[in-house]
Amino acid sequence: MTVDALPVPGPLLEARAIDRSYGRTPALRAASLAVTAGEILAIMGPSGSGKSTLLHCLAGIFSPDTGEVWFDGRRLDTLNDARRSELRRTAFGFVFQFGRLVPELTVADNVALPLLLGKVRRKQAYQRAAGWLRRLELDELGGRRTGELSGGQAQRVAIARALVTRPKVVFADEPTGALDSLTGEKVMDLLVGLARQEGTTVILVTHDPRVAACADREVMVRDGRITDPYAGEAVR
Ligand SMILES: Nc1ncnc2c1ncn2[C@@H]1O[C@H](COP(=O)(O)OP(=O)(O)OP(=O)(O)O)[C@@H](O)[C@H]1O
């Protein structure tokens, strides 16, 4: 093979001119964004500007009304619901503002759950979950119900649950929004440190410039359009 014939690595995840409205309220207008593998990207912008809608479209939770979403060389937005859920379960991990753990289950159960849903055998799922709990310094808490955790502990469990399947992309929507600043900083250090060790791409929605500073790159969403945070111009 000559050097000319080598494939050029493209973006891992890309939104191409996506529009999305809720009834008559436009949330995204021709928003375009390309994220490379291993990149840690912060999406910033005022309240109601379209950040969460963008994250949901990139993660295949919502489909845009027009435009395209590509993941790993495949069109994501036109996959049927079953294939999109399968992709989300195998290739993506999620960390939300309030953890969204299952409160009746233990910490270890919550972390093992994505593996069990992926048909990993029980013993192996719990071994892998235990490994992640150690990495997040949560091994003492494996038997505790998640409804009994502090906010910072719950977010560490959410990070373990997001990474346990070794996803290609972790989507984090205000992961430190419910935490005090010191705890938030620790949670971000853990998320970013582990993502870098694993080569995981992270797409992070945040209001907090200190959280965004942990990322490799920032984009700004204003009125449903993605702009360069410094130049204030639409990114193409
Ligand atoms: N379920 C919904 N029904 C109707 N309108 C919605 C819905 N969700 C979002 N919107 C509207 O779409 C626009 C973008 O909302 P979105 O939640 O994406 O913004 P955001 O930047 O994430 O906001 P915030 O920072 O406050 O969470 C806003 O005008 C919002 O009011």
Automatic annotation (TrEMBL):
Recorded superkingdom: Bacteria
Family matches, as InterPro entries: AAA+_ATPase, ABC_transporter-like_ATP-bd, ABC_transporter-like_CS, ABC_transpr_LolD-like, MacB-like_ATP-bd, P-loop_NTPase
Annotated ranges, domain ABC transporter: 13-234
GO molecular function, one term: ATP binding
Pfam families noted in UniProt: ABC_tran
Record's keyword terms, sorted: ATP-binding, Nucleotide-binding, Transport
GO cellular component: membrane protein complex; plasma membrane
PANTHER family: ABC TRANSPORTER RELATED, IMPORT ATP-BINDING PROTEIN
Entry protein name: ABC transporter ATP-binding protein
The species this protein was found in: Nonomuraea deserti
Lineage, broadest ranks: Bacteria, Bacillati, Actinomycetota, Actinomycetes, Streptosporangiales
